[in-house]
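In this supplementary section we document a worked example of the pipeline. Step one takes a protein sequence of length 311 as its only input; no multiple sequence alignment statistics are reported here. Step two produces a three-dimensional model, which step three serialises into structure tokens for compact storage. The input and output of this example are shown verbatim.
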Amino acid sequence: MIAQHLILITAVCLHGVGNGCGQASESGARIVEASFVQAPKTIVDTAQSAGSFSTLLAAAKAAGLVEALNGPGPITVFAPTDEAFSKLPKGTVENLLKPENRDALASILKYHVVPGSLTSRDVIRMSGAVTLNGQRIDFSRSGSSVMVDGAAVSSADIACSNGVIHVVDAVLLPTDATIADVASSSGTFATLLSAAAAAGLEKELRGAGPITVFAPTDEAFAKLPAGTVESLLKPENKANLAEVLKYHIVPGRVYAADAAKAGVARTLEGQSLVFSIRNGTLEVDGVRITSSDIDASNGVVHVIDRVLLPG
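The serialised model returned by step three reads:
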């Protein structure tokens, strides 16, 4: 039973055990809650008391993140058990714990942490949340299970003095693909990649970032007047091409919800994009965003069905 995985905290009482801990949420997803009278321990202390998070704690120490997990918070931690870490390919954990891989390890662990306290009911109502890593984790349902990036939440709502723990049955792994990698692997952005190379902007798509790219597909470029793309790709038009492409790039990670809330965002070209919602679909400068919030190691990609042209 899922309740067997709940962390037991000294001098803290569990409520509702006699009545059954599985409850159906308003949306129908089954969640397992641990309701406590008090939560005197931090996230680190709670994990230590559980006895099933030794690898997570060792990793946090190696990555220099123990202080953050012991801080005032509040934070939400999606905590992989020792068993979850054991599912990784042989040698992965040992390699990550090496001093030279400290940054990579820290990036992975931060991908399990979300600012603020998110209860299981919050998670069910949300489509995802931005982590301390900068990338977004996605929430979904699979039957009666609540899923986080494909990992099942086995125990939820473990209250701590500085936040909340949700136990997950797999390690969450942020993508290491750059925006250029994402575009290349999709097979539908050949024109965009060629244009970026011709304009000398490929480094922007492969750099550290973070940036947000509103990426026109090959079909979007094909909608331009005949000869336009060919003309822009000529060496003498490199500056003009660069301005057009920079108009598709915004500094920082801007997810769809943030864009809709802000209404505008300044581009690398200097002018601002305007966001609106029409018939339930987010648009940028009147152009439809057909796929949003595609994470990359150096930013976010939103797919658009037309090329944006600066005024």
